[in-house]
Design a protein that fits this description.
The complex is a heterodimer of chains A (181) and B (287). Chain A has 181 residues and is mainly alpha-helical. Chain A contains 9 helices and no strands. The two termini of chain A are 24 Å apart. Classes of the chains: A mainly alpha (181), B mainly alpha (287).
Chain lengths: 181, 287
């Protein structure tokens, strides 16, 4: 599967970024249009509640706007690094421990799964299982299979080698498979 | 098995799994991938099935009101930065925490969230809230999946650019060429965007044609208000409208007769029951 969203070509993105750094609303609107769904999707799978994901999306967008003048290097890698840092902050802020039972209990209390279509049920199961993986494994799975990036792109985003991404992918898929069995 | 040997085997399996995932993305089936590595079939199969299932998961969608709220914040943030760049005496005052706080309370009480977007909807590029309007439009479009509704939105956006262009021209006496280009682009994209059902195709084409004629009339009116250099641009835009009009007439004729005029001019058939139309040469703004 290729990337799920209409791509911005690197030349176009570079032009947009130059304008966005001057706070040109058209350029920022175009960048938002492209990246907002990706960011939401990323955050959706990394935190438990839908509302928390929406709040985080809002915070990430504002952080991006406020720091865009200092952005350098790969924009995609930069924006996902911001998202990742803010997810880490989120867990730190709420002092959420990686306590599986607690999370499962919370989600059971919030979500009524009885009327969910099959695909959404699978989505929810995958999401819950993902939360049991290490942070790096979660990132690799989400960026590769949910966002549709290739290993070399993920390597740049996470600052790792392609070989390390392959190893993380293998371990993450194996763990997920065991969790979902 | 010694640990180094196990690590080597793991590395090999990691590589094979990754190769198979790449092959799946290129369209191969799981069975075809497994046939290449029968000795790893048992380990690979569940992992590949899982990878494929994850890639087919539906994209999660945030609540529309949340998107809207995020975009309002984004638009306000852009406006704040732009304002800061052009800071004046009032700007310095605005930066004072007490003043900013008081102003934000008044602002929130006056408009509220929905109010800001409503006020922004009437703004032009020189206005404080114009960024809110643009970002909101983009996402409104992004959240619309129905082809015909997306096409309608394109027409709406094109109409807004036209109104903004007129309003700015009246205020400043200069034609905003970016707005002119965007007006033409949005109208062009309305046709490419839509996969129109056969039942609604004539209505849609006729609506777009009327809108195109309206744009042409406005451009004709504007023509006399701009200087010679800009008049050339307006003339070019009028020519594009004429060209589009003639293409749309051909499309409508063809739709009525249900037979292609010539292979190059015929709209591309997508599938039974729907049609995707494409503009012909001369309909693009080339600048």
């Amino acid at each position: 599967m290729q990337n799920k969203y209409q791509e911005i070509h690197s030349n176009e993105l570079e032009e947009l970024l130059n304008s966005a750094r001057e706070y040109d609303p058209r350029a920022i609107a175009r960048i938002c249009e492209h990246f907002l769904p990706k960011i939401y999707q990323y955050v959706f799978y990394r935190v438990n509640g839908r509302e928390d994901a929406e709040d985080l999306m809002n915070e990430i967008c504002l952080r991006v706007i406020n720091s865009i003048r200092n952005q350098q290097g790969s924009f995609t890698a930069w924006i996902f690094r911001i998202a990742s840092n803010m997810v880490t902050d989120y867990y730190r802020r709420r002092a959420v421990r990686r306590n599986v039972e607690l999370r499962e209990n919370t989600i059971e209390a919030v979500e009524d799964k009885s009327n969910m279509p099959d695909k959404l049920l699978i989505q929810e199961e995958v999401k819950q299982a993902l939360l049991h993986l290490t942070e790096e494994q979660q990132q690799v799975i989400i960026l590769k299979f949910i966002e549709g990036y290739e290993n070399d792109e993920i390597a740049v985003m996470l600052g790792k080698s392609v070989g390390a991404i392959r190893a993380l992918q293998f371990r993450a898929l194996t763990s997920l498979r065991n969790l979902l069995r | 098995m010694p640990p180094y040997r196990k690590r080597m085997m793991d590395r090999e399996l990691e590589k094979i799994l990754d190769d198979c995932i790449s092959e799946l993305r290129k369209g191969k089936s799981i069975e075809e991938c497994l046939a290449q590595y029968p000795e790893y079939g048992l380990q690979l199969k569940p992992l590949l099935e899982l990878a494929q299932a994850m890639e087919r998961l539906p994209a999660p969608e945030p609540a529309p009101e949340m998107i809207s709220a995020t975009l309002v914040s984004v638009g306000q943030e852009i406006a704040r930065h732009r304002k800061k760049k052009n800071r004046s005496v009032f700007g310095i005052l605005f930066q004072q925490p007490r003043f900013a706080w008081a102003l934000s309370v008044v602002f929130t009480m006056l408009f509220g969230l929905a109010g800001i977007t409503t006020v922004a909807s009437g703004s032009t590029p020189s206005d404080f809230l114009y960024p809110v309007k643009l970002v909101t439009e983009k996402i409104q479009f992004l959240l619309t999946s129905d082809g015909e509704k997306r096409a309608e939105l394109r027409i709406t956006f094109s109409d807004r650019r036209l109104k903004e262009m007129k309003s700015l021209l009246e205020r400043s006496g200069t034609l905003d060429t970016t707005l002119l280009r965007e007006m033409l682009d949005e109208a062009k994209l309305a046709l490419g965007e839509s996969k129109v059902s056969r039942e609604t195709a004539p209505v849609f084409l006729s609506k777009l044609n009327h809108f195109n004629a309206y744009q042409r009339d406005v451009l004709e009116h504007i023509r006399s208000q701009v200087d010679t250099t800009q008049r050339e641009l307006v003339d070019e835009a009028i020519e594009i409208c004429d060209m589009r009009s003639s293409w749309m007439r051909r499309m409508m004729d063809e739709e009525m007769e249900q037979r292609p005029i010539d292979p190059q001019a015929s709209p591309r058939r997508e599938k039974r029951g729907s049609t995707r139309y494409e503009w012909g040469p001369g309909c693009d703004w080339m600048r």
